[in-house]
Amino acid sequence: MSGTSPSSTGSSGEGQPSGSGPALPGEVGTRSGANRATPDADMALDAAVDAVAERIGTPGIGTEQLTLGGDGVVHEIQWSDALPWWLLFRAAGAAFSPTVIILGALGAIALWAGWSLADQMGLPGASVVPVVAGGAAPSAVRPLDGAAVLNTVTGALPAPAAAAVGQALTLFSPASTAGLMGGAAVRLAWFVLVWSLFGTAIARVVGLRLVGEERLGLAGSLRFAARMWPSPCNAALFTLLGMLALALPAMFLGLLMRADWGLAVAGLVWPLILAGGLVLAILAIGLVLGWPLMVAAVGVERGDSFQAISTSFSYLYQRPLHACFYILLGLLVAVPALAAAAFVADATSGLALWAASFGMGHARTTGLLEAVASGGEAASFGARAIQFWTRGLEAVLGAFGWGYAWAIATAAYMLLRRDVDGTELDEIVDEIAAT
């Protein structure tokens, strides 16, 4: 005989006060049930959390991020879901992997070799891009005349990135000669060709690491890029051809503007030309800022050229503030990341000489340091060889900036894909799904 009646074991606590204090032995489930979170209370708390998340305009923050215990207390927060842009920090960490650094170095060397060949061939607008991702922008880069904001931004970029952006500004500058435009077009074509291969490989490696899949090695990433590189290359080509097609009416009007009467006609219809210029600006900005997203789209989605174009333009212009935020955050993270890469390069070369100095002695070490720093024909073969390997190490680690840029572009693409399409951050098209 338990002696429990319906009134003493009421599940909803009807007829019972919600007072405090432990339940008496004979009051099974009477007061303790009032102090425990019921399923209805859990549902109400979940609904309240979702309502708050919806009110502050933060998508995806709700029961997926908050783990609620039976007592209605938040025990765990999934920061990867609550703060999705944390993926950019993970991408910065992935940029330190040896595969990404080697791929970035190979791309930087290939870019330097191609642009050096263009300079040797005497193409106008010579500006050899440095291998090391640092230093000031080359003075030979011709920026867009009158564009003070673009000139300021270009001057603040590292030398390789500033050289690439400077070539794009030269190509689209109305003050550039035909020779300058031709030289910039050749160099930009080589830039697109090189990074369609190595950028796609880096995007694939970083994408797999971000979703927790198997890690792709150097050979595997290059095999993947060797099959997929035409897609980002053709995406840039198709966009540029579209711009040229839209510019044809203005080109014909420009022929008339050689005469004074044609210039007067152009002045009357210039608002129409400005409307066309707005369309060209949308395409140009989408090409310059969106092409890294095209490369990332191919690396993550294994898509073709048209998918890369549609997704990059859609993500960039549907979420422009999100894209700007991801770019700014990537630039902020780049400061300590590039400093860490430079520190590793300096520490490696410095400690190597420090270890050898115990055997050489102070006088010999000082002379070697001066010879390595100055170089020249007067230095011995050994000093020049040490200088060669030291600068080679600095170039390889300095090329970390290229790998970092493509890693951030991959993470930004995945974040924008989540913002626009609602695709989870852990989704990537693998080899099996593609076949």
Radius of gyration: 30 Å
> SSE string, helix = H, strand = E?
HHEEHHHHHHHHHHHHHHH
- Determine the mean pLDDT: 75
**Molecular shape:** globular
Number of helices: 17
Spans of at least 5 consecutive residues with low confidence: 1-38, 52-66, 127-146
Percent helix among the residues?
A: 55-70%
Instruction: Let me know the number of strands.
Output: 2
Classification by helices and strands: mainly alpha
Largest sheet: 2 strands, antiparallel
Q: How many angstroms separate the termini?
A: 69 Å
Percent range for β-strand residues:
under 5%
Strand order of the largest sheet: 1-2
Quickly list its features.
disordered N terminus; mainly alpha; 435 residues; two-stranded antiparallel sheet
Describe the protein's architecture and organization.
The chain has 17 helices and two strands. The chain is mostly helical. Among the domains are: 37-82, no CATH class; 93-325, no CATH class. The chain has a two-stranded antiparallel ribbon with strand order 1-2. Strand 1 (66-68) and strand 2 (74-77) form a beta hairpin. Helix 10 packs across helix 12 (305-318).
Q: What order do the helices and strands come in, and which of them pair?
A:
Layout: H1 32-35, H2 39-55, E1 66-68, E2 74-77, H3 79-82, H4 87-94, H5 98-120, H6 148-156, H7 159-171, H8 178-210, H9 218-228, H10 230-256, H11 260-301, H12 305-318, H13 320-360, H14 362-374, H15 381-398, H16 400-421, H17 431-434
Antiparallel strand pairs: 1-2
Helix pairs in contact: 4-16, 5-8, 5-15, 5-16, 7-8, 8-9, 8-10, 8-11, 8-16, 10-11, 10-12, 11-12, 11-16, 12-16, 13-14, 13-15, 13-16, 14-15
